[in-house]
Design a protein that fits this description.
mainly alpha, 2 strands
Length: 108
């Protein structure tokens, strides 16, 4: 899980058609765990979305509906992209993108 979140920004940059911030959702984490545990012969009988939410919340932080490593930049761009137009604030993630845009635009 940690490796998945840690490497997601690089994978998103390398292949944006395949990877995006939807890979941070609980549902995607559930699929990733199922695909890893079932072939290994691990019982996934008790693995469900509420259980994953409780466990993951101990180690990671949730902003909007997406999970991040503690200390990892939050936002749809991960803080690396330049915005050409005003970011529309729709949720916590876009609010962070908006603030990042405003701070980046300030003269230093």
């Amino acid at each position: 899980m940690r490796q998945h979140l840690q490497t997601l920004p690089e994978r998103t940059k390398a292949d944006p058609a395949k990877y995006n911030d939807e890979h941070r959702t609980t549902a995607t984490i559930n699929s990733m765990l199922m695909n890893t545990l079932i072939p290994a012969g691990v019982s996934v009988e008790r693995l469900n979305l509420p259980f994953i939410e409780r466990v993951v919340a101990r180690y990671f932080r949730k902003v909007g509906n997406r999970w991040y490593l503690r200390g990892q930049a939050v936002g749809s761009s991960g803080g690396d992209a330049l915005f050409e137009e005003e970011v529309a604030i729709k949720d916590e993630v876009t609010a962070i993108d908006w603030l990042r845009q405003k701070l980046h635009a300030r003269p230093r």
